[in-house]
Amino acid sequence: MSFSDHPSRRRRPEVSIVVANWDGGEFLARCLSALQLSARRSGRAFELIVVDDASTDGSAELVRSRFPNACLLENPRNLGFARSINRGAAWAKGRALILANNDLVVREEFVESLCRWYGSGAPPVPEGSGKRLFAVSAKTVGWYDGRPNQLCMGAAWRGGRVTPAWSDPAEPAACLFAQAGAAAYDAALFRKLGGLSLLYEPGYWEDYDLSWRADCRGWAQVYDPGAYALHIGGGSMRRRFGDDGVENMKARNHLIFEAANLSSPRLLAEWVLRLPVALARDAARPARERRFTRGLAGMFMRLPGALRQRMALGGESSDLSRLRRFRDHRPSY
After folding, report:
1. pLDDT of 149-183, one tens digit each?
2. Residue 204 in this model has a pLDDT that exceeds 80
3. Which of the residue ranges 110-124, 127-141, 257-271, 286-300 would you say has the lowest mean pLDDT?
4. CA dist 303 to 54, 253, 300, 306, Å?
């Protein structure tokens, strides 16, 4: 039976798989092949959507020639990760929306492990989750070294900062953050939240921001280690911005996340009071390593947008109760 004759291609898709790509031709074919195989093994009707972000390495031609059944959306100019993902999500027809990085190589059980949580016959969400399922996050490990890349992600309040924290359960568990490069979402809820925020362009922390906003609404998020994938990590971004550029971007977007989402007066006051202390520590470092200083300057340039998001945030749970749910997780740094 050919791929085009497979039963999963003849029904309205249950799941839409969206891959955003910019000059990732060296690993894109491996990614798409693995995703197609996993989707076929699930037996679910699916569609594969590739959003090419004005690549110059022949990526679009690769998709057209080697993956003719994929839906290829070509951006007229480079729009960035969030806009590309949001464009693919707007095009998607499935109830479940899987987002996968272009440098991800999934195991055969990946799609079914994510999608089994949606629709009739879905298992109950783990204790500590919300009322309605929003996202299911996968387990990813490094392609080269096998070290954990994304596990069951929560957060801790540490040194006046929201610090990502993790645990590594063998069974599905509640999580706070879903990794947009390896996760499934309720497509309708994803669109209701407006998709990935553009505050964080060109990338990093936008998926954590989305998860935080979903948690504020009381929506459940689950980590399923059965959805397993290898991740090369930062391929396109590091090629474009370099290692220093990526780390500076992460520092800025971490601060934007806090400015946009912290609602507890107590935590917000502590965060503001800690900023001068962090600046003083940063000043003692070599100029090239003063990422916090550069990040803070970048955050202030985007502060109006962060404040607008804060005004629209609302929510059913407080920052403190949200962070307490994950007090047993280990801080990432």
Report:
1. 899 999 999 999 999 999 999 999 999 999 999 99
2. yes
3. 127-141
4. 29, 11, 5, 5
Place 128 in a pLDDT band, splitting at 50, 70 and 90. Answer: low
Residue 235: per-residue pLDDT? 63
In order of start, what are the domains of the chain with their CATH numbers? Answer: 3-238 (3.90.550.10), 242-315 (no CATH)
- Whether residue 253 has pLDDT greater than 60: yes
Share of the chain above pLDDT 90, in %: 79
Instruction: Tell me the residue type at 118.
Output: Y
Measure Cα distances from 285 to 220, 293, 329 in Å. Answer: 41, 11, 30
Would the pLDDT of 333 be above 70? no
Q: At 108, give phi and psi (nearest 5°).
A: -60, -30
SS (H, E, C) the chain: CCHHHCHHHCCCCCEEEEEEECCCHHHHHHHHHHHHHHHHHHCCCEEEEEEECCCCCCHHHHHHHHCCCCEEEECCCCCCHHHHHHHHHHHCCCCEEEEECCCEEECCCHHHHHHCCCCCCCCCCCCCCCCEEEEEEEEEEECCCCCEEECEEEEEEECCEEEEEEECCCCCEECCECCCCEEEEEHHHHHHCCCCCHHHCCCCCHHHHHHHHHHHCCEEEEEEEEEEEEECCCHHHHHHHHHHHHHHHHHHHHHHHHHHHCCCHHHHHHHHHHHHHHHHHHHCCCHHHCHHHHHHHHHHHCHHHHHHHHHHHCCCCCHHHHHHCCCCCEECC
Q: Which residue has the higher pLDDT, 4 or 206?
A: 206
Residue bearing tokens 């505050």 = 199
Name residues whose C-beta falls within 8 Å of residue 178's C-beta, 6 or more positions apart in sequence. Answer: 134, 135, 136, 137, 153, 185, 207, 210, 211, 221
The tokens for 112 are 């079914």
